[in-house]
Amino acid sequence: MGIAERRATLDFQARALPGLKDQIHKLAGFPVELEINWDQLAKEGAAERYLEGWRKVYFTPVIEALKSVGRDDMGREALRDGLKKISFANSADKYSADSAISFVSGELVIDHDPDCNVDYVSERSEVVRKVLEKGL
Questions:
Q1: Residue 53 and residue 41 in contact, taking contact as beta carbons nearer than 8 Å
Q2: Which of 2, 111, 119 is nearest to 53 (CA)?
Q3: pLDDT tens digits, the chain, 136 residues: what are they?
Q4: Domain extents for the chain?
Q5: What string of DSSP letters covers 15-33?
Q6: How far apart are CA 124 and CA 10, in angstroms?
Q7: Can you tell me the distance from the alpha carbon of 89 to that of 109, in angstroms, rounded to the nearest whole number?
Q8: Phi and psi for 107 in degrees, rounded to 5?
């Protein structure tokens, strides 16, 4: 990771991450653990797109899915009881929601290329919702 990528990562962590974490925690109903592999997300040469890309690939799909799953007492209780951790990574260069999103043993994982299919937010949101509803 070069200096441009490190600067963009620090900027995201300082400016965008606190608000996004607050939204996730509020919608989950508790401060769910977030594990973010920044080194994997920080693709070289894409620093100027981190703010938009990371938001759309990782955070917005989780936020939208949590809104849907936690819309009633049953959903909120299921989230509290079953969701242990949310992890964001790019370990396998996956580009589609179906192959990149999983929920196993309480851990929701989005392991997706952060600079590919960025605008497919609705598709990712729907897959996150489905895996949560099936796994909870």
A1: no
A2: 119
A3: 899 999 999 999 999 999 999 999 999 999 999 999 999 999 999 999 999 999 999 999 999 999 999 999 999 999 999 999 999 999 998 999 999 999 999 999 999 999 999 999 999 999 999 999 999 9
A4: 3-135
A5: HTHHHHHHHHHHHHTS--E
A6: 25
A7: 8
A8: -110, 120
Residue 91 CA from chain centroid, whole number: 14
First to last CA, the chain: 37
Contact 50, 42 (CB under 8 A): yes
Q: Where are the alpha helices (DSSP H) in the chain?
A: 3-15, 17-28, 38-41, 50-54, 60-69, 73-82, 97-100, 121-135
